[in-house]
Structures are given as C-alpha cells and as structure tokens.
# Entry
Amino acid sequence: MTGISRRALIAGSTISSAAQGKPLVLGYIYGGPKNDLGYNQAHSDGRQALGKLPGVHAMDEASVPETVVAEESMSNMIHQDRADAIFATSYGHFDPFTLNVARRNPRVQFFHCGGFWQSERHPNNVGVYFGFIDEVEYLSGMLAGFATRTNKLGFVAAKPIPQVLRNINSFTLGARSVNPQITTKVVFTGDWVLPIREAEASSSLVDQGIDVLTGHTGSPRVIVQMAERRGIYANGYQFNQASMAPKGFLTGAEWNWATVYTKYAEMLRAGKTVVDGSIPRRLTGTLKDGFCRLSPFGPQVTEQARQAVAAAREKIISGSLGIYSGPIRDNTGRVRIPQGANVNVTDPELDKTDWLVEGVLGRTRS
Amino acid sequence: MIAYKPARIIESLVIPVGALLTGTALFGLFCAALGENGFAVFHSIYRAAFADWYSWQNTLTRAAPLLLCGLCTALPARAGLIVIGNEGAMVVGAIGAVSAGLAFPDAPHIASILLMAAAGMICGGLWICIAASLHHFRGVNAVISSLLLNYIAIALLNHLIEGPMRDPASLNNPSTRPLAAAQHLGLIPGSRVHDGLLFGLAACAAAWFLFSRTAFGFSARVVGGNIRAAQLCGIGIGRVLLILSFLGGACAGLAGMVEVAAVQGRANASVNTGYGYAGILVAFLARHNPAGIVLVSLLLGGIVASGGMLQRAHNLPDAAVMVLQGILFLVILCSETLYGRWTERRLRAN
# Structure
C-alpha cells in the first residue's frame, strides 16, 4: 500500500473497470406478473428490447409488492448485482420505498414510472417518466366508432382517477368524431386487478346493447376475452391483447416502453446522470415521441376506417389535430374546454380531470 | 437392543437429508424443463442466500419469523397434536401487538416492546388454543379447524385495517396508524438483522430445554408417544395439549409482533406474509425438533431470500421458490413413512 494514496487507488480502480467495459446494469421491478398481457407485460416487453443493445444487462423481478419487500429487491439488485440504475414501475413503489433506497444509495440512479418528484423533499438521484396515451385512445375510439352498429360502446374502468377518466374521455371523443350519436357506458370495478368483477361488468354491458368493449384496468385481457365470447368487438389497452380475441379485436392503445428504456440506456451509457440534469428529471412523451402506439388492426377493420385513422394519426403527429379542442362539455352540460381553446395532452391541467365528457353514461363517483 | 440407538440416529439423519436431496433433484428437473441449468440455479440460490455477509443478513432476517412460526407447529406436535394455524396466529399476534402499541404510544422503548410482545403472544396463544380446545373437548380435527382459523384471522385483519383501525392517511394501502419510533424493534448491532432473530433463537432454546430437561416436557412426549399410556400414568392430557398449543401460538404471535414492530411499522395486509405456512414446512422438515428448526429456518430463509435472484439471473418465474418449497414439503411428507422400517428390521434381527 505504501506510496499509493487512497484517492489514487480509487481513481485507478474506476478507470480500470471502465476500461474493462463493465456492462451497464439496469434493474426493473414490476408490481405484478410479467405475463399479465397488460401493464406489467408492457414494461417487461420494454426491458426485453434492451437485450439488443450491446453492453447493457437489464434484469427484472416481477410481482414485487408495494411494501418493504420492494426496498429489499432494489437493494439486492444494487448490492448483489451491482445495478447502476433501478426502474420501479408500479405506482406504489415510489413513496417511500424507492425514495428510501435512493437516499441510502446516492451513486445509483432511480427512475419511477408515474411518480411526482418534489425537489424539496426527494433525493436528487431520482427521476420520473411517463407517457400521455390520450391521443392513441382517441384513435382507438375512432375505430370503435366505425365498427359500432348500435352506437353504444362499453368501457370497464378500474378507478375514477384522472388517468382513467382521461382515457374514457379521449376514447369517447374519438368515437364521437366519427359519429356524434355514439355513447359510452362506463362501469368502475374499484381496483386494478379484479378479473371476476371485470368479467361481470363486461357481460352486463353487453346485455345493455353495447357492441364495442374496451377498458382500463391492470390488464383488460378478461374484458377483451369476454367481448370475444359474447360476439362483439373489443379494443385493448396497455399491451396487445389481440391473442384474446382473434375475431373481434379492432385495435388498442398500448405502451411502447422500449422507446423510453432504450433512450434511458443510451443516456446512462453516455455517462449522463439525473443528478446534474443531463438526464431530464421528468421524461415524458406522446404518440409523436413513440411512447405509445396503436395495436395492429384486427381482421374486421374496414379499409375506410383504416384510412380515416391513418389520416387522423398524421394530423395529430403534425399538430394540426388537437384532441382536446373546444368546445368540450362534460356529461352534465358544463363547458370544460371553451370554444377556440386547444388543450395539449401534456398540459398539467388535464391531470386534474374529474369529469366525464358529453356522451359518456356514468358518473365519476361510483 | 445395542444396535437400535445408532440405527435410529443414522435413520434420523439419512431420511431428511435424502428427502432434501430428492427434492432438490426434482426442482433441478423443473428448472431443466424451463430451459435452465439446475446446477447454475442452485449456485445462484447459494450466492443470494449464503455467499457473503450481505446475503447472510437477508437470510437471517427471513429466518427469524420462520423460527417462531416453526415452533407453532412443532410444540403441539410433540404431544401428537398437528396444528397448522401458524399464519392465523401470526396475523392475530400482529393485530394484538399493534393494538397494544397504538394504545400506549408514549411508553418508553423497553416497556413498549415488552407490552407489544406480551400482547402478540397472548393473542396468538389463545388463537391456537381455540383449535386445541375444539380438538380436546369437542373432538374437532385440529388440522382442519386451525387451517380454517387462518382465514378467519386474515378476514379479521382486513376488516380492522379497512374499517375500525384504518389510518385515514393510508389511501392506496389500507393500514393502521404507524407505531411511534420508540416502539420499533432494534437491529442486532453491526447488521441489518432485527432483534426478532434473537427472539426466535431464544424461543428454540427454551423449547429444547422444555422438552429435554423438564417433567412437563417429558409428560408431553409421553402424550405424543402413547396417549393411553399417558392416561394410565395420570397425565392431564388436556392440560398438556392446551399449554403446548398456547406456547406454540404465542411463538407465532411473537412473529407477528416482530413483523409489525421491526418490518412494517404498522399493521396492513402485508402482515399476512406466508411465513406461517412456511413454518409448517419448517416444523415437519425439522421433525419438530427445536435444534432442527434452527437449521431448517436458515435453509428455508435462504431459499426465500433467493427468490429475486432466480428471477434476475435465470429469468425463472417469481413463483419458482414457492415451487421449490412445495416440492420439498411433499417429498418430506412422503419420507415420513420411511421412519422405523430399517430400525425395526434391525430390532427383529437382534
């Protein structure tokens, strides 16, 4: 040890490990199973896309509950696998679990899907990311609008929170842009994963005469499955559920986390960090940025519908079609977005959405 | 007769070790069926559970509740009563402990810990006594009744945390109000392992002392060995069964107290962790022997602690460690039928 200062030793070891080309190690945790054909599988799918990148090792743990177990999973990734960055994907993983581990491991970076970072309270090695999927729901709603014969659509939703209400609204706006006679009947189940209640709700909606069904739950696989069984059309959400309804599947709004995770991996590999802001504190994107996309169209989508949706997609991407363009009334008749106003989907004002758009049959208080 | 004792010792080593090896071999086949190398998987389990001090601490943290939950089945089993209500007793113990803690939020540290431990132990003990009483006084099968009591305990917990005991500030994850900082159980100095491990080891030592050094322990073994003989000797069967069930339940209740006071800091649905069910496995694997429980808890704690590593390193499903536990349990239950065959043959030969 003589003749070598501690600092030189540490500096030397850093350089040598960089020279050896230590892979960038990323750890992902999901709140549920990674084959749920829904939210968790969408994240897992995004992680798998990193397998193509050289020098990146992305590992994951599924069904990590929103308890101290999450802290332990993250700590194990850091201490046993030398993770450089952790991606926590379930809403409840954020506070306090991700924040606690981040405080204890200032050299590791943490990214959380959907969290809200506060500079005065939260450690600075934490970033958040999310996507705005309203525009894709709008396009999905357009296809539903072309397909329906009864002019009645069904929507099985988990909870009346802004994120869900926005999807119901944009789906309905899309459908009504095709045919203003259309209504969307909404049923709230109360939680993200309640397959039996989702099946019951789906079935009762079909009994009420709807002929296109979609939903926003942890995974709408049961909803899509039930639609197929009852012989009506289905639109998916979160992930591609076409396999659940080979006949009646139209399309769906799905996440494309591969874009986001590839972006992060490239920034991290370039030595950037969220601590000094070279990685944005909050990374968000829309249809245009490839954060989300439409599922491939099912066999019964007509050529006319295909072309109309493709044209609307181009207009949304070019910015000439705003899906939240006034006047927009809620389903009690109150004007929410006035004539002439155009609210961008990234506008924080929409995060306070507590109303359902005109044409939706249902209430935000279930 | 001379050859009998060594034969019995050899048997009590060979059968559990053989069962463990068979179980691991079957799990290896399971991994192979999923396209993974079984040996690599076992190396990962070793790496995640026992390779260094960091991993050992994960294992020890999980071994603590397993020690206590294992005793819940092991103690009454020595007197011949099979109770599998560990999960329920743990949950009820957690409810008791958190209620006591929240009732006296300003008590000093030591007093709070003692109070919460006592409350947890009494609740858990009485809970298992319900099953034992039903067995002794009404002839109800204790395996079934204690299993069903688990569901009642979990329903009670869910009712309390979503209703009367709910902290209004717990939105997405209904919980009781948090315990005060002074009510949290400490860590063993120099580690991340909480004092619950010491509770578990102390309970195992006490159980060993009870069975091998006291008259009560001897009478319990007589009851377990031959209930008619025990009756002829004038041993109060009901007293022995109820006391052992209370002590067993108290251990599981203490595990519940540790879970709220050292891990969660409050009671919520996560208190229902599955350690209780794993405790049944621990007790049977250890053949209800307190020293065996220590070893088996470490082994099982390690297996549970390696669940994440198996996903990360081998892309195995998150239920893989449950599969391993289930295979081990089945193989061990089957191996129970082998005891006595060899020794009896030796006896006859002599």
About this structure: Residues 63-286 of chain B form one domain. Residues 95 and 321 of chain B are 28 Å apart (CA to CA). Chain B is about 75% helix and 0% strand. Chain B touches chain A through 18 residues (CB under 8 Å).
